[in-house]
């Protein structure tokens, strides 16, 4: 069993030496357990937070422990009557070839519904995040303007398409010309390359009537440019802050916090952070029904960025944090 463990806690951007590849014996089954072989491993921004020592909304990965992660896995052996060898499941095996789980820790996937990789992206956690943030918090109305950055990633691209379906005008912010073309294919009404020109001017041109919903995926310079352009009663679902994910945690209020609070007050803003899991009970059923239908009908499309080989996971993960991914980042660990 080849696996990748956390070797050191990163200082800023993760380095290759923060990960270590190891071999261990293939785990053996206890009563009621399943032996799983990883087919696909999902790489997600939240994993960077888990590499820090501090607890955020979940516990950190311990030094020497396998890096966490969602997987699409095949049941190889089963000591549970509900599962048979050959079944494909959504699991949380982490960055390794084999893992043991109980039936309650996995969810069976039906490959006839959609390609199994989608369980890690548009039909999985990132798609659910987009769905929850837009429908439960952002609530764009017909004719309103929604802005989202990281617009070609699994969260951003899905946010844009759901908002379009609800009748909003959508503006996608991306890093680089290649992503600009991709964002247009996802149907964004306007696309801004954050690496070219002045972001504020570009937002003025793309959203001349101001911004009603800003789906916060990145923080940093994009947030600074968006804030003064928010309309009265604008909603800001705060989903992720990847621009500052590698930086040291802010310890005290930045100098512009009084100005921020004045804007929140005078424009009656709703700024609402969320962790997608909060909506698991209330939205899982409607998400599964809506998103499966939208994907089947082609109303929601998706893009995946798949690299072969578990050994490439650290490099690909680091690249994703820098914006080198084009679509949902996935590692193919074993044969499909
Ligand atoms: P993506 O696949 O979109 O990858 C991250 C993207 O972030 C990069 O491709 C890049 O896009 C962009 N990015 C990187 N650095 C910066 C920067 N300095 N400024 C602006 N953009 C930057 O990731 P996901 O779709 O998986 O996740 C998107 C966000 O949603 C993340 O912040 C993530 O943490 C968050 N999230 C939150 C959840 C929750 O429950 N709250 C659940 C899931 C995700 P580009 O090159 O186009 O700028």
TrEMBL record:
Domain of life: Bacteria
GO function term, MF aspect, one: oxidoreductase activity, acting on the CH-CH group of donors, NAD or NADP as acceptor
Residue ranges of every copy of the Oxidoreductase N-terminal domain listed in the record: 3-107
Keywords per UniProt: Oxidoreductase
InterPro entries in UniProt: ADH-like_C, ADH_N_2, GroES-like_sf, MDR_fam, NAD(P)-bd_dom_sf
SUPFAM superfamilies according to UniProt: GroES-like, NAD(P)-binding Rossmann-fold domains
Domain Alcohol dehydrogenase-like C-terminal: 154-276
CDD domains (UniProt xref): PGDH (cd05288)
Pfam families per the UniProt record, alphabetical: ADH_N_2, ADH_zinc_N
Family matches, as PANTHER family: PROSTAGLANDIN REDUCTASE, PROSTAGLANDIN REDUCTASE 1
Protein name: Zinc-binding dehydrogenase
Protein's organism: Amycolatopsis pithecellobii
High-level lineage: Bacteria, Bacillati, Actinomycetota, Actinomycetes, Pseudonocardiales
